[in-house]
Design brief:
By secondary structure, the protein is α+β, with helices and mostly antiparallel strands. It has two helices and four strands, in the order E-E-H-E-E-H. The longest helix has 8 residues. The N and C termini lie far apart (about 45 Å).
Length: about 90
């Protein structure tokens, strides 16, 4: 896995935190988007994987490791600190 020093500043956002903060990232392959040699990928902050390691799960039947990403996590990260609750 290649680690990039900067997150791309286009419209891409990290699938875990929902931001495009300029932090080291890697390209996470997207299922069913390519062949054996090339595929589409989503920039993902390396820090997000490390910080959310407690949310990793293994599905033995499917043979996959996945991460639970709750909408609440994104909402907290993108919350407006000046916004008041009603």
């Amino acid at each position: 896995m290649r680690l990039f020093d900067h997150f791309p500043q286009d419209k891409a956002v990290c699938p875990i935190c929902g931001t495009n903060d300029d932090k080291p990232c890697f390209l996470m392959p997207i299922d069913e988007t390519g062949d054996d040699r090339i595929c589409e990928a989503q920039p993902t902050h390396a820090e997000c994987l490390r910080d959310h390691a407690d949310q990793f799960r293994l599905n033995r039947d499917a043979g996959i490791v996945y991460v639970l990403v709750a909408n609440q996590l994104r909402e907290e990260k993108n919350a407006d600190p000046d916004q008041k609750e009603e």
